[in-house]
Design goal:
It is a single chain. A hairpin with a 6-residue loop joins strand 4 and strand 5. 23% of the residues are buried. 47% of the residues lie in helices and 14% in strands. It is built from ten helices and six strands, in the order H-H-H-H-E-H-H-E-H-H-E-E-E-E-H-H. The protein folds into two domains: 45 residues, no CATH class; 189 residues, Endonuclease, Chain A (2-Layer Sandwich). Helix 5 packs across helix 6 and helix 8 runs antiparallel to helix 10. With 243 residues, it is α/β, with parallel strands linked by helices.
């Protein structure tokens, strides 16, 4: 078996399993308890993403992490972030790709919309901070009507206090994220996790120095981007241009 084949199947343990491991060690050291705990039963539960056969294994792992995350920071250079996409926009994205199977497209659209429920949880809604390149606002996905609906959706979603969006204008110049987009996930317990989706496959970054590098780049982009209020006004201007 080639080294790249072995690496392709590597995924780090999920936050729930890491938390379970820490709790087991603590209890064993304190009282010698066994694995028979509520968390162990939760670990065996099947996530909704595991029922969708069209989703790649590594992306299913990403969804498991996202489900447990308390905050997501996301830089998108070419598309609207998945957590903020409308149904029409998401369908146009998947149709434009190499996926031609109608059932697979619908599965992926449903998965994208299901993910967005994290932003509307009754308790501890996922905090989202995203930086979107101006290019993502100029690429017409689907049609001008799809884009107009998408812009209006962003304006509406950013009214929620736990959702923040900043636009990185072309005028900001060169920046440290010239290799593409990435995600940084934070958890109630445990270290941050980085995620990068590339043409060569998805990468999870767990090493502290790697995650620190992503955080440094993200903070750099945050400083270069327009403020959240300016960004919303900029997107509203795009809507007005389409009227």
């Amino acid at each position: 078996m080639r080294e790249d084949q072995r690496m392709a199947r590597f995924t780090p343990p999920t936050p729930r399993s890491r938390r379970l491991g820490r709790e087991i060690r603590r209890l064993r050291e304190a009282r010698g308890w066994t694995l028979d705990m509520e968390m162990a039963r939760e670990l065996r539960e099947v996530g909704w993403w595991q029922r969708l056969s069209s989703l790649p294994h590594k992306f299913q792992t990403f969804l498991a992490y996202e489900e447990e995350a308390t905050e997501v920071q996301n830089f998108e250079p070419t598309l609207i972030p998945g957590l903020l996409q409308t149904e029409a926009y998401a369908r146009a994205v998947f149709t434009a790709g190499q996926e031609r199977n109608t059932d697979a497209v619908e599965q992926r659209v449903r998965a994208r919309l299901k993910r967005q429920e994290l932003l509307a949880r009754a308790k501890k809604s996922l905090r989202l901070h995203t930086i979107v390149s101006e290019a993502a606002l100029l690429v017409e996905v689907g049609s001008s009507e799809v884009m107009r609906e998408q812009f209006l959706h962003i304006v509406e979603m950013t009214r929620r206090t736990h959702i923040t969006l900043q636009v990185l204008r072309f005028a900001a110049g060169a920046h440290m994220a010239d290799h593409g987009g990435f995600v940084i996930m934070s958890f109630e317990e445990g270290p941050h996790l980085g995620y990068i989706d590339t043409l060569g496959g998805s990468l999870f970054l767990e090493a502290p120095d790697e995650v620190r590098r992503l955080v440094t780049v993200y903070d750099h982009l945050r400083e270069l981007a327009m403020s959240p209020a300016e960004s919303v006004r900029f997107i509203k201007g795009k809507v007005d241009e389409m009227a």
